[in-house]
Amino acid sequence: MSEPRILVTNDDGIESPGFRALYEALEEVGDPVAVAPYSNQSAVGRARSFEATVHDYDLGYAVEGTPVDCVIAGLEALCPDADMVVAGCNKGANLGSYVMGRSGTVSAAVEATFFDVPAIAVSQYVPTNDDEEFEHVTPPKEAYKDACDAAAYLVDAATGDGDVFAEADYLNVNAPAPDDSLARPPMRITEPSPLYAMSAKFDGEEIRLEDNVWQRMQNGDIPDEEGTDRRAVVDGEISVSPLTAPHTVERHERLDDLAAAYTGDRATQL
């Protein structure tokens, strides 16, 4: 069996240490080609452009656009023979249901599924100290090893006989904070946490939006149950959530009744 052709993208930008770490890990199990944003595109979700300039890059291509732009451009034009899309390695975890739609890393994996191409989103939890701003923390390439090793393992083992992508559209992988242990962190199959922890504070002029979950993660003070992605990462495990991309549809008898009743003249409807 030939090595899989892997389209590698991210949202931190093609020059980020995490991207290089992931690319090098994937070289051990396949034939990666970079189609990644030219600059940082963190938290852009599934935003897309109408056109984007493409630059040749030593690992493939750098696109002046979003992660979704990169996946569309890659699978349609730059790397149409890709067998899989792997996005990352993101600086910072992508955990919880409410984070999924914001993440450019996860959104790249979601976009790939509409091409019927299996995908993996890969992120590394990066804790900070009280006096550190996350934006100013720059982990070295080596700090992404656990996440990248897990991604390479899944690329190599999750397809073929017993293909996990027959059931899941994409995998969301998050590694815990690095430690000094020589052993790999255990891998846990999880579901996204339902915990929502956003808050807003208004001082009369400006409003500050904060995600309060990160401080709670560092303290271990989270209500997430066993089996959730955030609990696994806090407990030092690699979280793997097998997810589907198209929105699910839940039929509801009451809603069917409302639709059936929506008849008659517009002027009298309300």
From TrEMBL:
It is found in: Cytoplasm. Its cofactor is a divalent metal cation. A divalent metal cation binds at residues 11-12, 42, 90. The keyword Secreted does not apply. Binds 1 divalent metal cation per subunit. It catalyses: a ribonucleoside 5'-phosphate + H2O = a ribonucleoside + phosphate. Residues 6-181 form the Survival protein SurE-like phosphatase/nucleotidase domain. Pfam families: SurE (PF01975). Its EC number is 3.1.3.5. Keywords: Cytoplasm, Hydrolase, Metal-binding, Nucleotide-binding. Belongs to the SurE nucleotidase family. Nucleotidase that shows phosphatase activity on nucleoside 5'-monophosphates. This is 5'-nucleotidase SurE. It comes from Halolamina litorea. The gene is surE.
